[in-house]
Amino acid sequence: MGEQLSFFEFEETVEEVVEVVEVEAVVEPVVEEVVEVEAVEESTVELVKSRTAKMSKRGIYIQDKALLETVFQVGTYFEVNIDGSTIIVTGTETKGKNTVSKRAMKSFVKPVIDIRQKDVLATLAGSDELLISIFTDRILIQGVCL
Fold first, then answer.
1. What is the pTM for the complete model shown?
2. Is residue 120, in this structure, part of any structural domain at all?
3. Fewest beta carbons less than 10 Å away: which of 4, 35, 63, 127?
4. pLDDT tens sequence across 103-138
5. Range of the domain at 132
6. How many domains does the chain have?
């Protein structure tokens, strides 16, 4: 039982008999230790609204009915942080220097966020307009150059 193979210009004679043997395998079930993990409450952070706004030299003024669906209710406190070129506004329980104001409309009251910090304005300097993304627990503000 000789067979010649030609593979990459090598010539060999193969004379090997392969015997097939059936083997019954014994498989033991693998038992993994089950570790209970505390249930982590899923975050319910969602984008409520995204819009553009005019850039102002005086500050950032956000008056939007969509704020009624967020943690930014009239009279609550917020803090402003700068992360690179993004301004992050988050609600806080502790009394701070920033409070959500109000503007009375005919049938409801709109929350108003007014930010006039110089470092925030310096971060957005040179922008033509602002991109404001309102989430349920924070607001992201980015400068946009047209």
1. 0.67
2. yes
3. 35
4. 988 888 999 999 999 999 999 998 999 999 999 999
5. 47-144
6. 1
Which CA distances in Å does 81 have to 14, 86, 96, 133, 146?
75, 8, 13, 15, 25
| Listed residue (25, 3, 28) closest to 16, CA to CA | 3
Placement of tokens 């971060």 in the chain = 123
Half-sphere exposure of 6 (CA within 13 A, CB side): 1
Cβ atoms of 112 and 21 within 8 Å: the answer is no
Tokens 């009279």, residue?
75
Cα distance between residue 101 and residue 28, in whole Å = 67
C-alpha span between 73 and 99 (Å, rounded): 9
